[in-house]
Amino acid sequence: MVVAVVQTDPTFSVVSKNIDQALSLMRTAQADLYVLPELFASGYNFTTEEEARSLAEPFQQGTTFPAVAAFAKEQKATVVYGFAERDGDEVYNSAALVSHDGTTGLYRKLHLFDREKLFFAPGNLPFRVFQTPAGPVGVMICFDWYFPESMRTLALRGAHIIAHPSNLVLPHCPDSMPVRCRENRVFAVTANRVGAENRGGISLSFIGQSQITSSRGEILARASATGAEIHTRTIDPDEAKSKRLTGMNDLFEDRRPEFYQ
Length: 261
Ligand code: ACM
Prior knowledge:
The protein is α/β, with parallel strands linked by helices. The chain has one domain: Carbon-nitrogen hydrolase (Nitrilase/N-carbamoyl-D-aminoacid amidohydrolase, 4-Layer Sandwich). It has 6 helices and 16 strands. The strands form 4 sheets. A 6-stranded mixed β-sheet has the order 5-4-3-2-1-14. A 6-stranded mixed β-sheet has the order 6-7-8-9-12-13, with helices on one face. Strand 15 (244-246) and strand 16 form a beta hairpin. Helix 1 (15-26) packs parallel to helix 3 (64-75) and helix 5 (148-156) packs parallel to helix 6 (173-184). It is globular. It starts with a strand and ends in an 11-residue tail after the last strand. Residues 38, 113, 142-143, 167-169 line the site of acetamide.
């Protein structure tokens, strides 16, 4: 099966251009699972809660979901992407999953990074694994990686691949994902953006370097720090099934949770 990491260069608030750029890039490479960045259609560097709300869409409504769902259907693929979600009075930093067979999924970022706390409500849904035509896919968003519990929970719940929409500004994630993948024996597709957003006196630069990491901790693909790019790799998600490390060690069975609190 083929996974694609899609690295885009969005312009703040220019939603249809950002969606078009992403889908055009995705049409250049066939894959079973495409992962797009966090907030890929809206941009990231909000100045007010109202601004975030005005760019937010209810799950499965608005502009983004129908465009991505149509792509998934046409390409017989599964797509995971980050979006600003409006639900009643709340705005969440969310990720949606949509597959050609009609499978859909929603995740709301649990660990908000820095000024995101000014614009978004913290996620209120559990980490979830979605049974997709591309296998069991767990979803987390960007800074969630910093909390080992995120990937551990998804792996314990049966994920073989972690879809990881991101807008990374700190440098640590790409070199850290091999450890996260190795300790959980899962694949990860970390889709980051490039470019910079200077708004309201706050300037943010995004580090690119989107990455596909194997369940053994190998970096299978890493994008550049500056370009809009798509990278695909063929993987066998079943390699994430067994957690056996040696004849006498199993990464999950050997855990001692009673001593971890
Ligand atoms: C981040 O969580 N967007 C750094």
